[in-house]
Specification:
This protein is an alpha/beta fold and about 375 residues long. Helices cover about 25% and strands about 25% of the residues. β8, α8 (about 175-190) and β9 (about 195) form a beta-alpha-beta unit. Bound molecules: pyridoxal-5'-phosphate (PLP).
Length: about 375
C-alpha cells in the first residue's frame, strides 16, 4: 500500500456502491426466483478481493466464483462459510487440496469429471459449453455423460452452468441459441437436485428466462455498464484522481511527448500528470483520452508514457490548474466505460489493469447483514 502523502494518484473504491450494485442485481434476479452470486476473480476485477468479498458477504451474498485455486484459497481465508466455485477447475493433482478447503471445482471436461470422481468426488459444478468453445463440456462429451451418468460416481453436481458469449448484445441470435441449448442439456443430463446458472452481468438484463436458479455477475458489481448503449443501471464504484506534477506555458510551436505526435501551435498551457501505462492507463489513450477538472475536459495530448501523461489545460483558468491540483482520470464525467471506449477496450480491462501503484482509499463497507 502506498503512502497517501507520497501518492501521485488516489484510487477511491466505494464498497457501499459494490454492495448496492449487488442488491440491485439480487432484486432483479429475485423477480424470477433466482439467487445472486458474485464473481470476484482477478482480485475482484482489480479492486481488492480482501475488501470486496467481505462487503458482499455482509450484503447477503452466499455464493462466490473465482478463476483459480490460489484465488479460491485466498477467498476461503476471508469467508470461511461461503460457497466457492473455481471456474478453472482443479489443477491436476490438486483435487485433495480443493476438497480440504471446501472449494468446488467447475468441471469443464469429461477428463475433469473423471479426475474429480477418482479423487473421491464431492460437490462440484458441471459446465456445458453452449457457444464459447473455451471451457465446458463440448456437445460430444456432454452426450457421453448423458448416456453414461455413472461417470459421475461420487461426484455431487450442485450446479449446472454455461456461459453466454454475446450477452451485452441483447439482439444477438446466439443468446437464444445458447438458452435453448442450455435447456436441452439440463433436460438430457437429468441431474437431480441441482441449480442451473447461465447469466453473467449482462445476462441478468436479457430477461427472466436467462436467470434460472442463480445469476453470476462480476463486472456490473464494479460499476461497468451491463447494458451498453443504454443508461448504466449500476452505481459507479471507482474514481481515480491524480495530482498535477507540473504546469507549463508554451508560446512557441513545439511537440509533446514520445514520437512528437502532438504539436502545440501558438500559446497554450500543459499539465503533466503522474499516471501512465504502468498504472493501467492504456497507451491507446494517447491523443484520445481526457482528464476532468470538475466538468471541464482536458484532452490527453501526445503519447501516454510509462508514468506520465500530458493534458492540454489551455482553456482552463490559471488558478484552477496548478501543481498539486487533482484531476479526475476516472470519475463522474469519464466513467470506466467511457475511458474504455476511448481506449478501444472494455471496462473490464480498465479495472483489472489499475494495479497497485495508486494510493487506495476504500469507502464504506461497514454494514453487517
Ligand atoms: C467472468 C465470468 C463471469 C462474470 O462475467 P461478467 O460479465 O463480469 O458479469 C460469469 N461466468 C463466467 C464463466 C465467467 O468467466
Amino acid at each position: 500500500m502506498t503512502n497517501s502523502a507520497h501518492a501521485g494518484a488516489v484510487l477511491t473504491i466505494d464498497l457501499d456502491a459494490v454492495a448496492a450494485n449487488w442488491r440491485l442485481l439480487r432484486e432483479r434476479a429475485a423477480l424470477s426466483g433466482a439467487a445472486c452470486a458474485a464473481v470476484v476473480k482477478a482480485d475482484a476485477y482489480g479492486l481488492g478481493v480482501a475488501r470486496v468479498a467481505p462487503t458482499l458477504w455482509d450484503a447477503g451474498c452466499l455464493t462466490f466464483f473465482v478463476a483459480t485455486l490460489d484465488e479460491g484459497l485466498e477467498l476461503r481465508a476471508l469467508l470461511p462459510e461461503a460457497e466457492i466455485f473455481l471456474f478453472n477447475g482443479a489443477p491436476p493433482g490438486c483435487e485433495p487440496e480443493l476438497a480440504h478447503h471446501r472449494l468446488c471445482p467447475v468441471l469443464n471436461s469429461l477428463r475433469d469429471v473423471d479426475a474429480w470422481s477418482a479423487a473421491g468426488g464431492g460437490p462440484a459444478a458441471l459446465h456445458v459449453d453452449t457457444g464459447m468453445c473455451r471451457l465446458g463440456l463440448p456437445d460430444s462429451e456432454a452426450l457421453t455423460l448423458a448416456r453414461a451418468p455413472g461417470r459421475l460416481k461420487g461426484v455431487r453436481v450442485t450446479l449446472l452452468l454455461s456461459h453466454l458469449a454475446c450477452a451485452e448484445e441483447p439482439d444477438h441470435p446466439l443468446n437464444h441459441a445458447q438458452l435453448a441449448a442450455f435447456r436441452d442439456w439440463a433436460g438430457l443430463l437429468r441431474l437431480t437436485g441441482i441449480r442451473e446458472s447461465l447469466a453473467n452481468s449482462s445476462g441478468v438484463f436479457l430477461g427472466q428466462g436467462f436467470h434460472f436458479h442463480l445469476v453470476r455477475p462480476g463486472a456490473a458489481l464494479y460499476g461497468v455498464n451491463p447494458t451498453p448503449g443504454r443508461p448504466n443501471p449500476m452505481a459507479p464504484v471507482v474514481r481515480l484522481q491524480a495530482r498535477i506534477l507540473q504546469v507549463r506555458d508554451v508560446d512557441t510551436p513545439q511537440t509533446v511527448g514520445y514520437g512528437a505526435t502532438h504539436r502545440v501551435q501558438g500559446r497554450g498551457r500543459l499539465a503533466t500528470v503522474p499516471v501512465g501505462y504502468a498504472d493501467g492507463y492504456p497507451r491507446s489513450l494517447g491523443n484520445a483520452g481526457g482528464g476532468y477538472f470538475g466538468d471541464v475536459r482536458a484532452p490527453v495530448v501526445g503519447r501516454v508514457s510509462m508514468d506520465l501523461i500530458t493534458l492540454d489545460v489551455s482553456h482552463l483558468p490559471e488558478d484552477q490548474v496548478r501543481p498539486g491540483t487533482m484531476v479526475d482520470i476516472i470519475g463522474p464525467h469519464n466513467a470506466v466505460d467511457r475511458v474504455a471506449r476511448e481506449a478501444g477496450t472494455i471496462g473490464y480491462e480498465i479495472l483489472t489493469s489499475l494495479g497497485t501503484r495508486h494510493h487506495r482509499v476504500y469507502r464504506g463497507g461497514g454494514g453487517r447483514r
